[in-house]
Design goal:
Blueprint (H helix, E strand, L loop, with lengths): L1 H5 L3 H20 L7 H16 L5 H28 L3 H26 L3 E3 L3 E5 H17 L10 H28 L3
Antiparallel strand pairs: 1-2
Helix pairs in contact: 2-3, 2-4, 3-4, 4-5, 5-6, 5-7, 6-7
Length: 186
Amino acid sequence: EYARLVRLERPYLALLAAWAIVGLLVAALARRYFLFLPLGLFLLTCLTPILTGQTSGAHRQVSGAIFGYLYIGLPMAYLVYIKAAEPWGLQFLLVVGLAVALSDVAAFTVGSLLKGPKLAPAVSPGKTWSGAAGNLLGAALGVAILWVAVPEEWTGPGIAALIVAVAVGAVLGDLIESFVKRDFAV
């Protein structure tokens, strides 16, 4: 869907899809090389117009492939990385997954009920500051519901930071998706 939206040409789409799979494998099996994934994709996408000689519009293709990987492929690889690298990785993913889901529901609910000033009207006209506050409440609720899965070694400030990161990340994710859709008039 993303590739169609940004009109990625076949070589760049193939590279993006293949690198997403490579990222999952590296995250699971060769974690020490994980940090090289974005650089590897950058080099390969930049080599594509050099090797093919097709330089017209190449900067858009390279940019589209890299953005797509950073927005979709790399976060998926991070999920595998967290699960594989940390003894509490599965608990973390469960807690964060529920916190993200409930933050989204609470943002919609609170934002719809309270309305108020718009958060980013040019990008996403429906998002409000009250919805952003609801996002924070939903993230906290998600963590509270799965409190039994929170590892004992996590500190109070660390959990508070996680809640804020989930809330901010959920809002930013929605806004990023919105600006991409607006840019492509979808």
